[in-house]
Write a structure and sequence with these properties.
The protein is built from 22 helices and 17 strands. By secondary structure, the protein is of the alpha/beta class. Helix 13 packs across helix 14. The radius of gyration is 25 Å and the shape is globular. It starts with a strand and ends with a strand. GO terms for molecular function: zinc ion binding.
Length: 611
């Protein structure tokens, strides 16, 4: 019997592919010390495949969920109107039109679409949510990242030695995007060893990173490993077969952790790589069990699919945030508005025309133990990656730029396959921690982790500290004081971080606070880029009616953001660092601020300190 589920007609996994009731009941009754008794319980389910294989190229969009059918041919003829989906033939396009017209004729795709306050001919209210709602719309975790991934080694611009061993520390890692970018940027013939420390004080982030490494290192088929990892990382729903595989992987790992013969030893990731963690506390075990167990079973962890959709919709479509969403949509092209809206509805990273009825399980790792969405209402997978690279990857696989999340799917699939392959090929040792960043350095100094090969004399070639340099987090002095003793002494070694919020406390950090001359210069550059006629056309569309002052305000805000891209704020950033007394901190820690950035060369507002 198919489940009728809000936006999709989903079908359940075949009974023959589900763990038996006896197996699940035994799992739910286990304490952590019992995992040694269940070695073979999930082994027979480890080769399950979803009903539709991961798309290698853009698929034909002729999907009929009511019949559980989908054309299996590539889609190479884009809809000429929206370019959000493609078909293999005119016949498939005609057959699918009844379903596709909801997207193609979406009012948001109209060139004269207006935000709600214009459409209703009233001033925007920008309703402030209540304090309780503010808290409920922000789960407090950043599971997808909020800045594009960086290559922490940048080998060609630095050591330029494909045989060199590297020791890297991501001390406030967030997700694995920086790790993946760094490993994948190495040459194919790299033959050195990588020792990678990954730490995040958020237990949810730590456990998700752990499971991602298990998937990428232990699922034999790298294409399947990449697809499971992609949806575990970014999609709100995934196939039941993927959940079963994750359950099997986590069960095997937890058995390793409690078995007296393997406890504390490295866990293999293929033949050449491994990872270790010094502990799994009660909180971590609860999170891992939350990912594992079937929510249809009594007393299990996890979240029901209907509950997950309801919670996702509650946060993503909160009425109090409608005008904020409309403000974001005003800056997008018509088809991109629809693409962003569709992701907000469904939460699945796939080409828009790909079959998804088999995504019939909730991804519990994106929800708290209490069933709450863990991130903000505006969290977006695209923020962690370079948009130009995402679009180029999509085009290579047949996707149109309008289907931006389809492009993201192919981009992530490509990189996750590469990472899975390199984990099997390169010699990589991952060490996972979940400690506050400065406390971790203290533990290392006290030789707490010598059993893992990390001691007070350990030195790293790179230390990536994310944005904890911000005064609203840990701060420059504390971070550099904590981690400078562990930086290797050579000209390439560096501590790399960035200041995400510095412009909020530095008056001239943005163009509107920089004075008349800076505003005029930025305006001149913007006019040169966009043309005077385009700017006039933008404002000529606004009615002089006093009720449409909101439209003018929105245009001005958008224009100011564009002007910020024209504004050279390196000097204000230097003033900010001076206020932070960076020179004093550098002298105390015996570090130097690099004047030429050779690790992240295209970014100016970050800090790269070296010996």
């Amino acid at each position: 019997m198919a489940q009728q589920f809000t936006h999709f007609k989903r079908f359940p996994p075949p009974e023959s592919e589900k763990p038996s009731l006896e197996t699940l009941q035994k799992l739910f009754s286990l304490s952590p010390n019992d995992f040694g008794d269940i070695g073979g319980l999930f082994s027979k389910f480890s080769n399950l495949l979803p009903r539709h294989p991961p798309p290698a190229v853009l698929p034909c969009a002729n999907v009929q969920p009511a019949q559980y059918s989908a054309c299996e041919k590539p889609g190479n003829k884009a809809c000429s109107a929206c370019k959000l989906v493609s078909y293999c033939s005119k016949e498939c396009q005609t057959a699918h039109w009844k379903r596709h017209k909801r997207v193609c004729k979406n009012p948001m795709r109209s060139s004269d679409w207006q935000p709600s306050w214009d459409a209703e001919n009233c001033a925007p209210f920008f309703m402030e949510p209540s304090e309780d709602e503010k808290e409920s719309l922000n789960g407090g975790s950043a599971l997808w990242g909020n800045m594009p991934a960086i290559d922490l080694i940048n080998l060609n611009a630095n050591e330029a030695n494909a045989r060199k061993d590297f020791s890297l520390a991501f001390v406030a890692s967030g997700d694995l995007r920086h790790v993946m970018k760094t490993i994948n940027s190495l040459p194919d013939d790299y033959s050195g060893k990588l020792d990678i420390l990954i730490n995040d004080g958020n237990g949810y982030v730590f456990c998700r990173n752990l499971v991602l490494l298990l998937i990428l290192g232990c699922v034999p088929d790298e294409n399947l490993a990449a697809d499971i990892a992609l949806h575990f990382w970014y999609s709100v729903f995934f196939p039941a077969e993927y959940r079963t595989r994750i359950c099997w992987l986590v069960t095997a790992f937890m058995k390793h952790c409690v078995d007296s013969t393997t406890q504390g030893k490295k866990y293999p990731l293929g033949d050449t790589s491994n990872f270790a963690t010094p502990w799994l506390n009660k909180e971590h075990r609860s999170y891992l069990q939350h990912y594992m167990f079937d929510p249809d079973m009594p007393d299990s962890a996890g979240i029901e699919i209907d509950d997950a959709q309801a919670e996702y919709t509650r946060v993503r479509m909160a009425p109090s945030r409608k005008e904020y969403r409309d403000t974001m949509y005003t800056g997008l092209k018509p088809s991109h508005r629809v693409a962003f809206y569709e992701f907000r509805r469904y939460g699945i990273v796939l080409p828009l025309g790909a079959p998804n009825s088999h995504f019939n399980c909730a991804n519990s790792s994106l929800f708290s133990l209490e069933g709450r969405w863990l991130q903000t209402d505006y969290a977006d997978p695209l923020e962690g990656w370079n948009t130009e690279e995402v679009i180029q990857s999509g085009k290579t696989h047949g996707a149109q730029v309008e289907d931006i999340y389809g492009c993201l799917y192919f981009f992530l699939s490509t990189h996750l396959r590469t990472l899975a392959r390199r984990i099997r090929k390169f010699h990589i040792s991952f060490k996972l921690f979940s400690v506050e960043a400065c406390a971790l350095s203290k533990h290392i100094e006290e030789n707490v982790f010598t059993g893992m090969g990390i001691a007070s004399n350990t030195r790293f070639d790179r230390v990536e500290v994310s944005n904890i340099l911000d005064v609203s987090y840990v701060g420059t002095r504390q971070v550099l004081t904590a981690w400078s003793p562990f930086l290797r002494q050579n000209k390439h070694a560096a501590i790399v971080g960035y200041y995400m919020n510095w412009f909020m406390v530095q008056k001239d950090g943005r163009v509107q606070g920089a004075g008349k001359s800076a505003m005029e210069q930025a305006t001149k550059q913007l006019l040169e880029r966009n043309g005077v006629d385009n700017l006039k056309a933008t404002f000529s569309q606004i009615s002089p009616d006093i009720r449409n002052l909101a439209s003018l305000q929105t245009k001005i805000v958008s224009l100011t953001m564009d002007m910020d891209t024209m504004y050279e704020n390196s000097k204000p950033f230097e003033k900010y660092l001076k206020k932070e007394k960076l020179d004093t901190v550098l002298r105390a820690t015996k570090l130097k601020l690099r004047r030429q950035h050779k690790i992240v060369p295209h970014v100016s507002a970050h800090c790269s300190a070296s010996r």
